[in-house]
């Protein structure tokens, strides 16, 4: 299940059975908004395009000027599933891939012309990418199945339980108003203030 909002204030909800949107008064549901009805994530980019990432074949679609386009395997994107999408300060789109199937793993970057793939060979913490966030400084944070990676445009730096993460399997990323990074994991929530990590688990009331 995923939730997104466009610049007009409409809320979009993705689920295993399709996509719904809410305009503040009414819900509308369709099973044909995107190329796949198994929606993992949705995001509006700086151009007003609404992107949907899902599971199964043709996992990425975008809505622009009222029309849907599929952005998938013929363009070199992952074949099976895209659980995370982000846009950086340069307008480039980033897509996280699962490890289900050869050529489906890692991180993809699309600059409007071509795709580039990043994997553990480039310094990524793990090849299963489950969450993406671009912070206010333009840094890309990548949540994976084996830790958190930070990408400054040139280099990856990774963090794991050894550095203070509650768990290496990450499902969600959020930057708060004070600039702290919050990381949702399979073993609790971790907060990074730019210098040190603090983790919270059931023992803290979660």
Report on the structure:
- With 206 residues, the chain is mostly beta strands.
- The chain contains no helices and 20 strands.
- It is globular, with a radius of gyration of 17 Å.
- The mean pLDDT is 83.
Strand content: over 45%
* Strand numbers in spatial order across the main sheet: 1-2-3-4
Q: In terms of structural class, how would the helical and strand content be classed?
A: mainly beta
Fraction in helix: under 10%
Low-confidence segments, given as residue ranges, are: none
Question: How big is the Rg?
Answer: 17 Å
User: How many beta-strand segments?
Assistant: 20
Tell the overall outline.
globular
What's the SSE pattern? Answer: EEEEEEEEEEEEEEEEEEEE
Quickly count the helices. Answer: 0
Largest sheet: 4 strands, antiparallel
Beginning-to-end CA distance, first to last residue: 21 Å
Mean pLDDT: 83
């Amino acid at each position: 299940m995923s939730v997104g909002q466009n610049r007009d204030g409409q809320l979009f909800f993705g689920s295993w059975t399709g996509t719904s949107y809410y305009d503040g008064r009414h819900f509308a549901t369709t099973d044909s908004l995107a190329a796949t009805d198994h929606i993992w994530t949705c995001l509006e980019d700086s151009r007003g395009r609404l992107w949907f990432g899902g599971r199964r074949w043709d996992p990425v679609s975008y809505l622009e000027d009222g029309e849907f386009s599929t952005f998938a395997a013929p363009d070199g994107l992952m074949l099976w599933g895209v659980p995370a999408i982000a846009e950086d300060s340069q307008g480039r789109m980033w897509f996280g891939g699962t490890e289900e199937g050869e050529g489906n793993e890692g991180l993809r970057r699309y600059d409007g012309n071509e795709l580039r793939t990043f994997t553990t060979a480039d310094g990524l913490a793990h090849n299963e990418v489950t969450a993406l966030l671009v912070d206010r400084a333009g840094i890309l944070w990548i949540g994976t199945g084996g830790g958190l990676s930070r990408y400054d445009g040139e280099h990856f730096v990774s963090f794991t339980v050894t550095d203070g993460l509650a768990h290496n399997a990450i499902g969600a990323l959020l930057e708060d108003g004070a600039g702290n990074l919050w990381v949702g994991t399979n073993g609790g929530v971790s907060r990074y203030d730019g210098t040190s990590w603090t983790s919270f688990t059931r023992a803290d009331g979660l």
